[in-house]
Specification:
The chain has 92 residues and is an alpha+beta fold. It is built from three helices and four strands. Helix 1 crosses helix 3 and helix 2 packs across helix 3.
C-alpha cells in the first residue's frame, strides 16, 4: 500500500472540511425537507469553493465526504418533478 496517496487524500479531506466549517458558520444541517431553507448540490458547493480559492485542489468527492462528516444529509426539494437529491441546509 502506498502511504503517499493516503496522506494526499487526508489533506484534501481536511481542506474540504475547513471550507465546510466556514459554511457551517452560516448554515446548519437541516433535519428534514421541512426544516431546509436551502438546497445545494455537491457540485454547487465544490464550485463555490473553487471560486473562492482556485488553488484549493478540492474535488467533489472531498466535498461529499466533508458534508457527510459534518452531519449534512441529502434529500429532495418538495414540489420538484423527478429525483434531484441535494444537500439540505438551514440558514442560521
Amino acid at each position: 500500500m502506498d502511504d503517499s496517496n493516503k496522506n494526499t487524500d487526508n489533506t484534501r479531506d481536511r481542506d474540504a472540511g475547513e471550507y465546510i466549517t466556514i459554511l457551517m458558520s452560516y448554515f446548519r444541517p437541516a433535519g428534514d425537507e421541512k426544516d431546509a431553507t436551502h438546497y445545494l448540490t455537491t457540485s454547487e458547493v465544490s464550485d463555490a469553493i473553487r471560486r473562492l480559492d482556485p488553488g484549493a485542489g478540492i474535488r467533489s468527492e472531498d466535498v461529499y465526504k466533508a458534508m457527510l462528516a459534518a452531519g449534512f444529509r441529502y434529500g429532495y426539494r418538495p414540489g420538484t418533478l423527478g429525483i434531484d437529491f441535494r444537500w439540505m441546509l438551514h440558514e442560521k
